[in-house]
């Protein structure tokens, strides 16, 4: 897409000039730097990229300019769960979706024609005419997955994950504590919510359980290979 950048920049210049905007050259520097990155950038990251090129602009001006680019169809504004607002290129006629790593925040793009057709077909079967959609798949990127040890404390398991209870640290007393919650070694549980602080919500059989973080540190689990169905 690099060779297209010159054309996009010219197109943007015409539109902002027609709108009578000020600081045209500054805006062109911003779109230039933006088109030069393939990342999904925050305003802060844009300011860093600009500053590397020797442009020092106020964050507010960069934000306004990026929002203008989004209005005019050069950028797309995205907000993934638990992340700040990001901007990415908007290539006319092309569409992609995203994997988002819940551990390191990495964003990976994918495009799958078959899945696009399936979505349109499902929508149509509900009498729904699909105009646009976004598909975001949250999970662990390949690097984060590779770094993970096979056995982890329950406190580190991620929402959506199914794990097996392998060990209970802390001696006999803690084992009986486990069974008082209706859990046993070898049980499979599903992590419903784990924000990294406070209680962890689990699914076990047809029950939801809330487990304190200190006990969740003691429950050692292995990550099952199978993914959660949703
Ligand atoms: Zn899609
Ligand atoms: Zn990651
Ligand atoms: Zn993207």
Produce the secondary structure layout.
Layout: H1 5-18, H2 24-35, H3 43-52, H4 59-71, E1 75-78, E2 86-89, E3 97-101, E4 107-110, H5 113-125, E5 136-139, H6 142-147, E6 151-153, E7 162-168, H7 171-180, E8 188-193, E9 200-204, E10 207-211, H8 213-218, E11 219-223
Parallel strand pairs: 3-5
Antiparallel strand pairs: 1-2, 3-4, 6-11, 7-8, 7-11, 8-9, 9-10
Helix pairs in contact: 1-2, 3-4
The protein binds zinc ion (3 copies).
Structure characterization notes:
- Helices cover 37% and strands 23% of the residues.
- By secondary structure, the protein is of the alpha+beta class.
- The chain has 3 domains: 2-89, Winged helix-like DNA-binding domain superfamily/Winged helix DNA-binding domain (Arc Repressor Mutant, subunit A, Orthogonal Bundle), CATH 1.10.10; 97-145, Ferric-uptake regulator, C-terminal dimerisarion domain (Dna Ligase, domain 1, 2-Layer Sandwich); 149-223, Ferrous iron transport protein A (FeoA) (SH3 type barrels).
- Helix 3 (43-52) packs across helix 4 (59-71).
- The longest helix is centred in the first third of the chain and has 14 residues, at 5-18.
- The protein is elongated.
- It binds zinc ion (3 copies).
- Residues 95, 97, 116, 133, 135 line the site of one zinc ion.
């Amino acid at each position: 897409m690099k060779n297209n950048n010159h054309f996009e920049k010219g197109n943007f210049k015409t539109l902002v000039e027609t709108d009578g905007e000020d600081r045209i050259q500054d805006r062109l520097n911003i779109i230039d730097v933006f088109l030069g990155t393939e990342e999904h950038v925050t305003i802060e990251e844009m300011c860093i990229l600009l500053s590397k090129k020797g442009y020092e602009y106020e964050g507010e001006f960069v934000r306004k300019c990026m929002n203008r680019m989004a209005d005019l169809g050069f950028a797309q504004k995205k907000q993934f769960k638990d992340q700040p607002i990001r901007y990415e290129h908007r290539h006319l006629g092309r569409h992609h979706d995203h994997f988002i790593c819940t551990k390191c925040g990495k964003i990976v793009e994918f495009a799958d024609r078959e899945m696009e057709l399936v979505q349109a077909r499902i929508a149509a079967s509900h009498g729904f005419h699909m105009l646009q959609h976004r598909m975001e798949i949250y999970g662990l990127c390949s690097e984060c997955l590779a770094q993970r040890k096979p056995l982890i404390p329950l406190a580190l398991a991620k929402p959506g994950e199914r794990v097996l209870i392998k060990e209970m640290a802390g001696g006999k007393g803690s084992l009986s504590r486990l069974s008082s919650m209706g859990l046993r070694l070898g049980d499979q549980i599903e992590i419903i919510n784990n924000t990294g602080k406070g209680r962890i919500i689990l699914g076990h059989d047809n029950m939801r359980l809330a487990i304190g973080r200190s006990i969740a540190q003691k429950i050692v689990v292995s990550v099952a290979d199978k993914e959660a169905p949703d």
